[in-house]
Each structure stands twice: as structure tokens, then as C-alpha cells.
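Predict the holo structure. Ligand: S-adenosylmethionine.
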Amino acid sequence: VWNHPRWWVERLQHDHPEHWPQILRANNQPGPMVLRVNRRRGTRDAYRERLLAEGLVSQPLGEDGLVLATPQPVDRLPGFADGLSSVQDGAAQCAAPLLLSGRAWAPGARVLDACAAPGSKTAHLLEHADLDLLALDVDPERCRRIDDTLRRLGLRAEVRTADAGDPGAWWDGRPFDGILLDAPCTAAGIVRRHPDIRWLRRPGDVAQLAAVQRRLLDTLWPLLRPGGRLVYCTCSVFRAEGAEQVAAFLSRHNDARVVPS
Ligand code: SAM
């Protein structure tokens, strides 16, 4: 009926007793194509007009997003190669505003994007503020994609191939004002983008990836200056990689508190 492994259905039933059928149904639908307008290169309204001039209808989403009525190859999008817009799902577009909202970010504020490749959220952060941003990823091939993303959008960051869990290898000792930890996860929340992920994962992956996230959280927390902000996000809907991880983190760190969103 659901076209998901039994363990996956049971975990969703446990984690989301009210919403699991909607989640499974949504996983079996194609997702819409969502754009993020580069606010350094023009307004969302102006870009929406440019799309319309090409016959492409769209609806606003969040602060910078446009949902296309019909998905398109990116070379059909006006100014895509020149960095006017990017493709990024609506939920992923929440991360940068969560880190930056509600406080002033002086030019040169130091931000760490700890698991950055291919750089979508790095770019979104830099579209919003003039940050001194260090983007890390453990995978050298994927780090090259961060460089490509930044070049296309006309943005700058320091990009390094490194293990975020080993700051001794890359940290200069100066605390960060903000940290984005977009951690490796099961990807259980983006099944419609990766339809085979449900069959590739094994039940034990959830605890194993949650342990990796826990290690990264505990390692990076001391690198944040007092009063700084850390956003932990994953693309999973399993609570072990979300709310439960946050609750356990708060119980280990009495110098942390949740910022109401
Ligand atoms: N933030 C990215 C974006 O918005 O485009 C997506 C990041 S993806 C969810 C997770 C990334 O974490 C992968 O690129 C993976 O290579 C990287 N990664 C996994 N373990 C890591 C580690 N120990 N240190 C740094 N990066 C790591």
C-alpha cells in the first residue's frame, strides 16, 4: 500500500502518530520545483515578472522562494547562469533565516557552515549578510561544488575540505558568532527527491547517523561565542534526528537554550 519498508512505516507511526499517512502519501508524490531568488541581484517580485515574461508561472514561498507551476530545465530560467536564482526546496530555505533572523549581523561576523556541500545554504546565508564565512565539507569532490555554487552567484567564502568533528585540524581558535550544522542524516524527509533512499537505508542507520550528529553537535558547541547561535538541521523526519536530538543536547549542555522560532 505505502511502497516503503515496514520498519520505516512503523517508525513514522511511532514518531508521527497523527501525520504518518500524510507523510507517506507525500513521499510518493513528485515534489514541486522551488527557486530561491538571489536578493543581491534583484527582488523576488522583479524575478517573478521575468519568469512570467518567459511564460513561467510561479508563486511566492517564504522569504526568497518561488514555486514554479511546472518544473523546468535550469537553462530555461532567466539569468540562472548569471546567478539570479538557485534551485532549493522550501524547507531548506528556512535554515539561513533561522540562523540570521532577529539580530543584527555586523559585516564580517564569523559564521561556520560545518557540512556545507554543495553550498546551497552557504549561498543563502551570504545572499542575506556580509559574513566572514568558513564552509567545510569532508568530501573534496563535493567541496568543488561549493566553489561552483559561490562563483555562479557572485559570493565569497573560505571553503575547506575538513572533518567538522576534528576542529584541531582547521579551527584558528577564534569563536564563531553563528554555526550552521546541516548534519549528515538518513534523508528520511526528502524521499520524493530521492525515491530509492527508503530502500537503500537499513534500520540501524538511524541510530548510527544520530550518533554522528550528536558527536558533531558536542564538538562544535564550544566553538560558538557566548550569546552566539547554532542551527542544527537535518533533512529527516525521524525524531531521533530532530526533536529527540535537541532534547538530549539540552540535557547535556546547561549553557544552551532553544531560541523560539
Ligand atoms: N548544507 C548543504 C547544502 O545546503 O547544500 C547540504 C549538506 S548535506 C545534508 C551533508 C554534508 O555533510 C554532505 O555534503 C557530507 O559530505 C558532509 N559531511 C558528512 N560528515 C561530515 C564531517 N564530519 N565534516 C564535514 N562534513 C561532513
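Residues 204-220 form the longest helix (17 residues). The two ends are 36 Å apart (CA to CA).
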